[in-house]
């Protein structure tokens, strides 16, 4: 791929730049420990989260992300017969601020920033991304969240909103934008559907039969235009 033809990179944040699976797993520890449920493995917890989050976002597309997480925590407790309470549900709902960045994210973004303008297209609220952005080491040229758009990826409306706003603000068409993401379900499939070219940051090693973690399973894998195991590998190739 000739990366010189692109002026902008659009990014998913959670799963690509922020290690949301570690953040989610850590945030579930309170309720797991309080209920002494050592049978709830990381793999099982993340799989349940993927199902519950997707259903909640589909059923309530305008709900802010902290409320989505609040409801997911309640539903997770009910599904697994755990005792929860309002305090635990709210703590989980407000946990995004504690989710860590991947170790290569800030350095890779700084490297990419020397050549490209950087855009965020994220499934969280404005405040949640503002907290996470402090870990990422760059100022993004545009930030579009589910709160602004009123729906959640994989809805193609989110990508159409981004493309329209970038055209209005910067005068750039989608042929000059490359979408960079980890999630096949949330990002690569809908990005392809609106005609964007994509880079898959395969942090879960799904191309080598890795674990789906907190992402809904996709049976038919979309074909990305390029695949990298981490963000720094992509940055070193693209710049």
TrEMBL record:
SUPFAM superfamilies documented for this protein: HAD-like
Plastid among keywords: no
Entry's Gene Ontology molecular function annotations: hydrolase activity, acting on acid halide bonds, in C-halide compounds
InterPro entries registered for this protein in UniProt: 2-HAD, HAD-like_sf, HAD-SF_hydro_IA, HAD_2, HAD_sf, S-2-haloacid_dehalogenase
Keywords: Hydrolase
Protein name, UniProt field: Haloacid dehalogenase, type II
Species in which this protein is naturally found: marine metagenome
């Amino acid at each position: 791929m000739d990366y010189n033809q692109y002026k902008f990179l659009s990014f998913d944040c959670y799963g690509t730049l922020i290690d949301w699976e570690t953040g989610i797993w850590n945030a579930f520890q309170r309720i797991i420990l309080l209920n002494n449920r050592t049978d709830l493995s990381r793999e099982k917890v993340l799989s349940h989260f993927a199902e519950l989050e997707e259903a909640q976002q589909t059923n309530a597309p305008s709900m802010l992300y902290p409320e989505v997480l609040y409801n997911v925590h309640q539903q997770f407790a009910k599904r697994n017969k755990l005792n929860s309470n309002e305090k635990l549900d709210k703590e989980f709902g407000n946990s995004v601020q504690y989710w860590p960045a991947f170790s290569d994210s800030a350095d890779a973004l700084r490297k990419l920033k020397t050549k490209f303008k950087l855009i965020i297209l994220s499934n969280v609220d404005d405040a949640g991304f503002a907290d996470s952005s402090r870990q990422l080491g760059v100022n993004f040229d545009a930030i579009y969240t589910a709160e602004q758009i009123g729906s959640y990826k994989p809805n193609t409306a989110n990508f159409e909103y981004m493309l329209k706003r970038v055209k209005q603000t910067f005068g750039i068409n989608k042929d000059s934008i490359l979408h960079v993401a980890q999630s096949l379900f949330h990002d690569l499939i809908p990005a392809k559907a609106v005609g964007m070219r994509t880079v898959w940051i395969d942090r879960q090693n799904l191309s080598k039969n890795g674990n789906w973690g907190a992402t809904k399973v996709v049976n038919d894998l979309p074909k990305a235009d390029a695949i990298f195991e981490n963000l720094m590998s992509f940055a070193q190739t693209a710049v």
